[in-house]
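Journal club prep — side note

Before the paper discussion, L.F. wants everyone to see what a predicted structure for a comparable chain looks like in C-alpha coordinate form. Sequence:
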Amino acid sequence: MQNKKSNSTTNSQKGKQSKDNSSTASMQSSQLMKLFEEELKDIYWAEKALTKAIPKMIKNATSEDLIDALENHLEETEQQIVRVEQVFEFLGKKAVAKKCEAMEGLIKEAVSIMEECEEGAMCDAGIISAGQKIEHYEIASYGTLCQFAETLGLEEAVTLLAATLDEEKAADEKLSEVAMNAINVEAAHQDA
Protein backbone atom coordinates (compact mmCIF):
# COMPACT_ATOMS: atom_id res chain seq x y z
CA MET A 1 0.00 0.00 0.00
CA GLN A 2 2.70 2.45 0.97
CA ASN A 3 4.49 1.77 -2.32
CA LYS A 4 1.40 2.74 -4.30
CA LYS A 5 1.02 5.91 -2.23
CA SER A 6 4.66 6.95 -2.73
CA ASN A 7 4.44 6.10 -6.45
CA SER A 8 1.32 8.23 -6.85
CA THR A 9 3.04 11.07 -4.98
CA THR A 10 6.07 10.74 -7.24
CA ASN A 11 3.87 10.63 -10.35
CA SER A 12 1.96 13.65 -9.07
CA GLN A 13 5.24 15.52 -8.52
CA LYS A 14 6.46 14.56 -12.00
CA GLY A 15 3.19 15.81 -13.48
CA LYS A 16 3.54 19.08 -11.58
CA GLN A 17 7.17 19.48 -12.72
CA SER A 18 6.23 18.88 -16.34
CA LYS A 19 3.41 21.43 -16.03
CA ASP A 20 5.88 23.89 -14.45
CA ASN A 21 8.38 23.27 -17.26
CA SER A 22 5.75 23.70 -19.97
CA SER A 23 4.40 26.83 -18.28
CA THR A 24 7.94 28.26 -18.11
CA ALA A 25 8.44 27.40 -21.78
CA SER A 26 5.15 29.04 -22.74
CA MET A 27 6.07 32.15 -20.73
CA GLN A 28 9.38 32.31 -22.59
CA SER A 29 7.47 32.62 -25.87
CA SER A 30 4.53 34.61 -24.53
CA GLN A 31 3.40 38.02 -25.71
CA LEU A 32 4.54 39.48 -22.39
CA MET A 33 8.02 38.02 -22.87
CA LYS A 34 8.21 39.58 -26.33
CA LEU A 35 7.13 42.93 -24.91
CA PHE A 36 9.65 42.57 -22.07
CA GLU A 37 12.46 41.96 -24.57
CA GLU A 38 11.38 44.96 -26.70
CA GLU A 39 11.27 47.23 -23.64
CA LEU A 40 14.69 45.95 -22.60
CA LYS A 41 16.09 46.88 -26.04
CA ASP A 42 14.49 50.32 -25.67
CA ILE A 43 16.01 51.08 -22.24
CA TYR A 44 19.38 49.69 -23.39
CA TRP A 45 19.43 52.29 -26.18
CA ALA A 46 18.29 54.98 -23.73
CA GLU A 47 21.04 54.24 -21.22
CA LYS A 48 23.71 54.21 -23.92
CA ALA A 49 22.43 57.56 -25.25
CA LEU A 50 22.62 59.00 -21.74
CA THR A 51 26.31 58.18 -21.50
CA LYS A 52 26.75 60.72 -24.31
CA ALA A 53 24.20 63.26 -23.04
CA ILE A 54 25.19 63.47 -19.37
CA PRO A 55 28.74 64.72 -20.13
CA LYS A 56 27.16 67.61 -22.09
CA MET A 57 25.04 68.45 -19.06
CA ILE A 58 28.13 68.34 -16.84
CA LYS A 59 29.98 70.68 -19.22
CA ASN A 60 27.14 73.22 -19.11
CA ALA A 61 26.48 73.02 -15.36
CA THR A 62 28.03 75.56 -13.00
CA SER A 63 26.86 74.34 -9.58
CA GLU A 64 29.40 72.01 -7.96
CA ASP A 65 26.56 70.05 -6.33
CA LEU A 66 24.89 69.58 -9.71
CA ILE A 67 28.15 68.59 -11.38
CA ASP A 68 28.80 66.03 -8.60
CA ALA A 69 25.27 64.62 -8.91
CA LEU A 70 25.61 64.30 -12.70
CA GLU A 71 29.09 62.73 -12.52
CA ASN A 72 27.85 60.22 -9.96
CA HIS A 73 24.84 59.35 -12.12
CA LEU A 74 27.05 58.95 -15.20
CA GLU A 75 29.00 56.26 -13.32
CA GLU A 76 25.73 54.62 -12.26
CA THR A 77 24.45 54.75 -15.85
CA GLU A 78 27.52 52.86 -17.06
CA GLN A 79 26.81 50.18 -14.43
CA GLN A 80 23.13 50.13 -15.42
CA ILE A 81 24.15 49.29 -18.99
CA VAL A 82 26.09 46.32 -17.63
CA ARG A 83 23.01 45.19 -15.68
CA VAL A 84 20.78 45.38 -18.77
CA GLU A 85 23.38 43.30 -20.64
CA GLN A 86 23.26 40.77 -17.79
CA VAL A 87 19.47 40.54 -18.15
CA PHE A 88 19.86 39.86 -21.88
CA GLU A 89 22.47 37.21 -21.04
CA PHE A 90 20.12 35.66 -18.46
CA LEU A 91 17.46 35.44 -21.20
CA GLY A 92 19.97 33.80 -23.55
CA LYS A 93 19.69 36.76 -25.93
CA LYS A 94 22.26 39.05 -27.49
CA ALA A 95 22.14 42.58 -26.04
CA VAL A 96 20.59 44.69 -28.79
CA ALA A 97 19.54 48.32 -28.60
CA LYS A 98 16.39 49.62 -30.27
CA LYS A 99 16.09 53.37 -30.70
CA CYS A 100 14.08 54.87 -27.87
CA GLU A 101 12.04 57.71 -29.35
CA ALA A 102 11.04 58.99 -25.91
CA MET A 103 14.63 59.26 -24.64
CA GLU A 104 15.75 60.82 -27.90
CA GLY A 105 13.10 63.52 -27.41
CA LEU A 106 14.05 64.08 -23.77
CA ILE A 107 17.72 64.45 -24.68
CA LYS A 108 16.87 66.87 -27.51
CA GLU A 109 14.85 68.92 -25.04
CA ALA A 110 17.80 68.97 -22.61
CA VAL A 111 20.14 70.18 -25.37
CA SER A 112 17.64 72.86 -26.38
CA ILE A 113 17.36 74.09 -22.77
CA MET A 114 21.15 74.29 -22.44
CA GLU A 115 21.44 76.23 -25.72
CA GLU A 116 18.69 78.71 -24.83
CA CYS A 117 19.50 79.36 -21.16
CA GLU A 118 21.95 81.88 -19.87
CA GLU A 119 24.94 80.28 -18.16
CA GLY A 120 24.70 79.99 -14.40
CA ALA A 121 21.80 79.22 -12.08
CA MET A 122 19.22 79.53 -14.85
CA CYS A 123 20.97 76.93 -17.01
CA ASP A 124 21.52 74.71 -13.96
CA ALA A 125 17.78 74.88 -13.17
CA GLY A 126 17.05 73.92 -16.79
CA ILE A 127 19.50 71.00 -16.63
CA ILE A 128 17.82 69.77 -13.45
CA SER A 129 14.40 70.09 -15.06
CA ALA A 130 15.52 68.09 -18.09
CA GLY A 131 17.37 65.59 -15.90
CA GLN A 132 14.31 64.95 -13.76
CA LYS A 133 12.14 64.34 -16.82
CA ILE A 134 14.72 61.78 -17.93
CA GLU A 135 14.79 60.18 -14.47
CA HIS A 136 11.00 59.94 -14.37
CA TYR A 137 10.98 58.22 -17.75
CA GLU A 138 13.59 55.76 -16.51
CA ILE A 139 11.71 55.16 -13.25
CA ALA A 140 8.58 54.33 -15.26
CA SER A 141 10.53 52.08 -17.63
CA TYR A 142 12.38 50.14 -14.95
CA GLY A 143 9.25 49.86 -12.80
CA THR A 144 7.43 48.30 -15.74
CA LEU A 145 10.35 46.00 -16.57
CA CYS A 146 10.47 44.83 -12.94
CA GLN A 147 6.77 44.00 -13.00
CA PHE A 148 7.06 42.15 -16.31
CA ALA A 149 10.08 40.17 -15.03
CA GLU A 150 8.24 39.32 -11.81
CA THR A 151 5.17 38.10 -13.72
CA LEU A 152 7.41 36.03 -15.98
CA GLY A 153 9.19 34.48 -12.98
CA LEU A 154 12.56 35.95 -13.94
CA GLU A 155 13.86 36.48 -10.42
CA GLU A 156 17.47 37.26 -11.45
CA ALA A 157 16.19 39.90 -13.85
CA VAL A 158 13.96 41.38 -11.13
CA THR A 159 16.97 41.74 -8.83
CA LEU A 160 19.10 43.45 -11.50
CA LEU A 161 16.33 45.76 -12.70
CA ALA A 162 15.20 46.66 -9.17
CA ALA A 163 18.76 47.75 -8.29
CA THR A 164 18.68 50.17 -11.24
CA LEU A 165 15.17 51.35 -10.36
CA ASP A 166 16.40 52.26 -6.87
CA GLU A 167 19.34 54.21 -8.35
CA GLU A 168 17.04 56.12 -10.70
CA LYS A 169 14.77 57.11 -7.80
CA ALA A 170 17.80 58.22 -5.75
CA ALA A 171 19.15 60.27 -8.69
CA ASP A 172 15.79 62.02 -9.02
CA GLU A 173 15.75 62.80 -5.30
CA LYS A 174 19.32 64.13 -5.49
CA LEU A 175 18.40 66.47 -8.34
CA SER A 176 15.42 67.75 -6.31
CA GLU A 177 17.69 68.33 -3.33
CA VAL A 178 20.25 70.24 -5.44
CA ALA A 179 17.49 72.36 -6.96
CA MET A 180 15.82 73.20 -3.66
CA ASN A 181 19.02 73.94 -1.76
CA ALA A 182 20.19 76.80 -3.97
CA ILE A 183 19.75 76.68 -7.72
CA ASN A 184 16.03 77.44 -7.98
CA VAL A 185 16.34 80.33 -5.51
CA GLU A 186 19.29 81.80 -7.45
CA ALA A 187 17.49 81.40 -10.77
CA ALA A 188 14.37 83.06 -9.34
CA HIS A 189 16.41 86.17 -8.48
CA GLN A 190 18.03 86.49 -11.92
CA ASP A 191 16.52 88.97 -14.31
CA ALA A 192 14.91 87.50 -17.42
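L.F.'s comment for the group: The CA atoms of residues 32 and 180 lie 40 Å apart. Keep this in mind when we get to the figures.
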